[in-house]
Amino acid sequence: MGRMTAPTPRRVLLAAPRGYCAGVDRAVIAVEKALEQYGSPVYVRHEIVHNKYVVQTLEKKGAIFVEETAEVPEGSIVMFSAHGVAPTVHEEAAERKLATIDATCPLVTKVHKEAVRFAQDDFDILLIGHEGHEEVIGTSGEAPDHITLVDGPEDVRNVEVRDPSRVVWLSQTTLSVDETMETVGALKEKFPLLISPPSDDICYATQNRQIAVKQMGADADLVIVVGSKNSSNSVRLVEVALGAGAGDSHLVDSADEIEEAWLDGVSTVGVTSGASVPEVLVDGVLAWLSERGFEDVEIVKAAEESIVFSLPKELRRDLRAEAAALSAE
Ligand code: 0CH
Ligand code: SF4
């Protein structure tokens, strides 16, 4: 017989906002609508969003994911992912006579436009972001001769510019706000005349999810972040949780990846999810916790989100044409 111990109070803190942002919602609906409109297959260059479950679900509906447009048969339909693409990708697609649907998030496009404008004005652009990440590859492609990647504060020492009086920083949309400010601080020490982007490049969704997890961090013995390993914004939520004082934090694709041992001695569990994560996966985590006595769920609300983006224009055009044809019948 084990020693009798008083039951530990068990509760869940559930972050709000969490999960889908407007850009992801739009991109996922765009693939679904394209499949309905044109039939299978619809090719998608790169994971439409960095989430395993989303990709698998769309594959079952007839989407085919590829890494490069060169893999798409000539004359087919290809959609570009929410992370954006370099102009050369549009050119390759045109050469292969592909019909393209661009699901790049409008907030990523905004950063592309900033890059083009500062390059036209002959600035050196210091793009803060993670090397090899799809979004950074796309943004850098807008002005390869003017952009230098800065991958975190440690990388600042390697940065060189042509003219320190004409330098601007831009960033990936899904970075840690705090780490980015640290990088900017180090860059400003090195280049005091460095100018900032005209508006925040780290998007509202990334910022709000980090603020919410920060609010719960200090009260949580464990924070479970739902998201895929290649999802930059989801990985950042684990770092932010730990930075805010959470006892422990893990990234899981779904409830099956949670380990029982993580609950040892734990009384408060924080739960959140990245911008590419469907709510059904969070429901699974909450059900898993509830089966283990974590039934009491308290919402930690950091912000209200109401932004919605309209579907990619190519798709809207074809959906409108179809609606017009149907009404003329
Ligand atoms: O966080 P990252 O950029 O890795 O991408 P995700 O997980 O697909 O989330 C959506 C963001 C897409 C572009 O900003
Ligand atoms: Fe757009 Fe931000 Fe969502 Fe990326 S995380 S798709 S930039 S809203």
Write up what this structure looks like.
This protein has helices at 22-38, 52-60, 87-95, 106-120, 134-140, 177-190, 204-217, 232-243, 279-291, 313-328; strands at residues 11-16, 42-45, 63-66, 77-80, 99-102, 124-128, 147-150, 167-171, 222-226, 249-252, 268-273, 296-301. The strands form three sheets. A five-stranded parallel sheet has the order 10-9-11-1-12, with helices on both faces. The chain starts with 10 loop residues before the first strand and ends with a helix. The chain is an alpha/beta fold and 329 residues long. Helix 4 (106-120) runs parallel beside helix 5 and helix 7 packs parallel to helix 8. Helix 5 links the parallel strand 6 and strand 7 (147-150). The chain is 38% helix and 17% strand. It binds 4-hydroxybutyl trihydrogen diphosphate and iron/sulfur cluster. 4-hydroxybutyl trihydrogen diphosphate binds at residues 23-24, 49-50, 82-83, 105, 108, 135, 173-174, 231-234, 274-276. The site of 4-hydroxybutyl trihydrogen diphosphate has 18 residues, from helix 1 and helix 8.
